[in-house]
# Entry
Amino acid sequence: MATAEEAFVANARTVAPEDDAFALRSDAYLDRALGLAWYILGDTHEAEDATQEAMARAWKARRSLRQLEAFDAWIDRILVNTCRERLRRKRLVREVALPPDAEPEAVDRFGALFARDSVGRALGSLSLDQRTVVVLRYWRDLSLEQIEERLGWPLGTVKSRLHYAHAVLRERLERDEREVQR
# Structure
């Protein structure tokens, strides 16, 4: 009877080279994935969970990736869809107010800092679709065509969401500026 170590070594020998390449690309992508998820979800813990969930989904679906060169677009789409699902589920969850003396388990210090920042507040005021397009365009520095590919939306929809996001951001930032000047 084979020991657990022997079974592991035997299994490791049967790993396809594509799986190794996929694992290397995934490892290199993790920090960017976490940042993208954070900008969409606005919460560190949610972003970590969404990134983990998206990477697990990607691993299970890795055989559907036809070209490793398309990895970034493919994984971005999985991650964005995972974030969107989490936000939809979150809207369905009924929140219960905690007693005033209850202490939270963990504090999202980066999220708190971002909420105090005027750009962070302005991003938070966007709809999910608008925020997703803005983050992909300016944080990931993607072209409109690349965003179209990642989201599976028509180019006109991407342009429209970005246009209306700019209008909301402009209005919100100008309002914040007027409040500061008072």
DSSP finds nine helices and no strands in the chain.
